[in-house]
Amino acid sequence: MGERGIEPGIHTDFSSRMTYADYLRLDQVLDAQSPLSDPPHHDEMLFIIQHQTSELWMKLVIHELRAAISLVKRDDLEPVFKILARVKHIQAQLFDQWGVLATLTPTEYAQFRGVLASASGFQSHQYRAIEFLLGNKDASTLHVHKHVPERHAYLTELLNAPSVYDEFLRHLSRRGLPIPAEVVERDWSHPREGSHPGVVEVIRDIYENPKAHWDAYEMCEKLVDVEEQFQLWRFRHMKTVERIIGFKTGTGGSSGVAFLRRALEHVFFPELWDVRTHIRDAAPGR
Fold first, then answer.
1. Binning pLDDT at 50, 70 and 90, where does residue 281 land?
2. Residues 232, 284: contact at Cβ < 8 Å?
3. How confident is the model at residue 196 (pLDDT cuts 50, 70, 90)?
4. Region 215-221: what's the mean pLDDT?
5. Contact of 195 with 142, CB cutoff 8 Å
6. Stated pTM of the model
7. What span, in angstroms and rounded, lies between the C-alpha atoms of 46 and 99?
């Protein structure tokens, strides 16, 4: 067989045109991996790229969640369904990436772990931003970022603003549903203190009467999708860390696996989970 060649219409002269690499700034992206091990350890590149790509996906999650919050504030729920569906798929990418890192054996990681010094994923300001956007507020975590004023200010803004779930509950209140006043007007810098019975009742009405509240019903399920995926990601993270370093202390000073396991106990949207226990079974013949 002869050579296929390229189609006549394909551009080949880029002396005055933008290229694929130009648009994506690949000169910067592909030059951003700088292993520190000496002599260079083969698997350090995997470790760096794993975490850099995770940060890129997290940047997109933040972009999407902030857009979702803006739409909910305008009482426009339907476009949010597409956004949260996309977030769920991004989270699936983040989950699957742990499988790549899990190919790193304990012995291989031990060869270059020392070059991380005190660097740790706990210091990821984007991860913290996602936690705040979803409602897990903790002012003490800002101390890690005080050495970068712009980053600290950005996270402080998110800390003091309603989360996506807060805005959804405020939206339900504007629709005339009896969301308790103390839920829709409060100090946003603190996380929700567990499940509120009054909110559970409102959510139960939405679930038991989906035709009357279809968009709210759909929004509830989209939020549950996001939280479920987040918890799966956290669990996979914990198990990957356990597989690679066992129960060693984390490079950032945390207790490692024990610290990650405690994070699994947090619930972002408590009423959306509690309502499942309270939904009444339909009467026979309904």
1. confident
2. no
3. very high
4. 98
5. no
6. 0.94
7. 12
